[in-house]
Specification:
By secondary structure, this protein is α/β, with parallel strands linked by helices. The chain contains 16 helices and 11 strands. Helix 9 runs parallel beside helix 10. It is globular. It binds pyridoxal-5'-phosphate (PLP).
């Protein structure tokens, strides 16, 4: 069979096309600011541009890239736009994307240490670095009884934490016999929906998740948590897991870890800290107090794929007692047995998460940390927080808007003084304009606009322009009378 008929892309063509794709990405990042942030396509539009059947014969690469531009791009919401202020950041960067490409090129499957020692050892090492960067206690590092692992998402990390908590509470019996309906988990009314999903998947049942009351900053009330646990104990139930959030998705609220940690210690519950959205801030010493009390936690997660210039997916999950996690998730069929595992001298990450297979994800995080350096990452986190705080000041000084809560970091929650109707019409009109993208939440039963600063190339001018556009659009709506 000659090279022509192998159907494979030749190394030479890969080299050429690879350069084209990298060029395409670099051009995209340069022009993304000029594209409508929120995709304006109607449902079905992207599929309508695709042939109903796959090609019988391979097509030229030019044709594929052409369709990326004409069919795919209009259906993309531009998360990498500096005018993206919605949900949470998902900031990518050159080093991360190149690390990702290298991972794909190596194509290793790191389920066992033996299936690619570098995949495991780099991950362990980079997660120890990150623990130091965030000021996490040594108990979460691999040199002691704990350690970190990269998960696909915070949702998976929280599920693993809950499973380990479930097993610890039942003496590892629920793995054998399933749940008996007595296990109870706790989180705040403001926690991410992934906790509810985890409770369903882990078999505790939605009815056994307690949503604990919050204070005026939307942070969990430790006294309410303690009371709920006691009530459940008195009813013959088995409280086993608390998830505290450092930076809720809705409003960035920061649950008081020292007090929650003390309740968990006193009552013997597993404490998981979900810092998916805001944990990155702890890289800066001046924000590190958000993690005060994390030394009382059993597990912790943070998402570099949100706010650390590392493209999706990359959640860093830490446990203080890796034996509890491994015992919960370990499965060892004959075909995975090997000498390195039997020696006990290596980490096999397959026992640290749900799936068996795993990519070489630490490469992209390693590239990012080495390329930016700690100082570079601190610089950008500080910049984002400062821009959000500027925006909050403009809201406070305006007569048309009010802050819904004081922003602790880089997310500002605000609303129009004329009420929910105007706030929601404003959001709709802003997003339809394509010039920026904001999302909303509900706080104290009020429709609330959210502006989150965290994209890689968001600068002062973007935040200023966002504020001007918001004010101008609000004025037009105000003129239109009650909305
Ligand atoms: N926890 C918090 C606080 C979040 O903000 C998010 C993201 O929205 C998640 C968990 C879920 O993140 P992931 O997509 O990594 O599962």
């Amino acid at each position: 069979m000659n090279e022509q008929s192998s159907f494979h892309m030749t190394p030479e063509e890969f080299r050429r096309r690879g350069r084209e794709v990298v060029d395409w990405i670099a051009d995209y990042w340069q022009r993304v600011e000029s594209l409508p942030v929120l995709s304006q396509v109607r449902p079905g539009k992207v599929r309508a541009g695709l042939p109903s059947q796959p090609p019988a014969q391979g097509e030229p690469f030019e044709a594929i890239l052409h369709d990326v531009e004409t069919v795919i791009l209009p259906g993309v919401t531009h998360w990498q736009s500096p005018n993206f202020f919605a949900f949470f950041p998902a900031n990518a960067s050159g080093p991360a994307v190149l690390g990702e490409l290298l991972s794909a090129g190596l194509g290793v499957q790191g389920m066992l240490w033996a299936t690619s020692p570098a995949c495991t050892e780099l991950e362990t090492h980079v997660l120890d670095w990150l623990a130091d960067m965030l000021g996490l206690p040594a108990r979460f590092k691999s040199c002691g009884n704990g350690g970190g692992v990269i998960q696909d998402t915070a949702s998976s990390a929280s599920l693993c934490a809950l499973l380990a908590a479930r097993e610890r509470a039942t003496g590892y019996a629920s793995n054998e016999r399933g749940c008996d309906g007595r296990l109870v988990a706790y989180t705040s009314t403001q926690a991410h929906s992934s906790i509810e999903k985890a409770v369903k998947i882990a078999g505790l049942g939605r009815a056994n998740l307690r949503l604990v009351e919050v204070d005026e900053t939307f942070a969990m009330r430790p006294d309410a948590l303690a009371r709920r646990i006691e009530e459940d104990r008195a009813a013959g139930l088995l409280p086993c897991f608390v998830c505290a959030t450092v930076g809720t998705t809705s409003s960035n609220a920061i649950d008081p870890l020292p007090e929650i940690g003390r309740v968990c210690r006193e009552k013997g519950l597993w404490l998981h800290v979900d810092a998916a959205m805001s944990g990155t801030a702890a890289i800066c010493p001046e924000f590190r107090q958000i993690l005060n009390g994390v030394e009382l936690a059993d597990s912790f997660c943070v998402n570099p794929h949100k706010w650390m210039f590392t493209n999706f997916d990359c959640d860093c999950f830490y446990v203080a007692d890796r034996a509890a996690l491994i015992r919960t998730l370990s499965i060892l069929p004959d075909y995975l047995k090997n000498k390195a595992t039997e020696s006990g001298a290596v980490i096999d990450y397959r026992d640290w998460h749900i799936q068996l297979g795993r990519r070489f994800r630490s490469l992209k995080l390693w590239f990012v940390i080495r390329s930016y350096g700690v100082a570079g990452l601190q610089h950008h986190v500080r910049r984002h927080v400062a821009l959000a705080q500027d925006f909050a000041r403009w809201v406070e000084e305006s007569s048309s808007f009010v802050l819904s809560v004081r922003p602790p970091l880089n997310l500002v929650c605000f609303r129009h003084v004329r009420g929910d109707g105007l706030s929601s019409s404003l959001l709709e009109r802003l997003n339809a304009s394509g010039s920026l993208y904001l999302t909303h939440t509900t706080l104290n039963d009020r429709f609330t606009l959210r502006l989150c600063v965290g994209q890689t190339n968001t600068e002062e001018r973007h935040v200023k322009r966002a504020w001007e556009t918001i004010c101008e659009t609000a004025k037009e709506l105000e003129k239109g009378g009650p909305v």
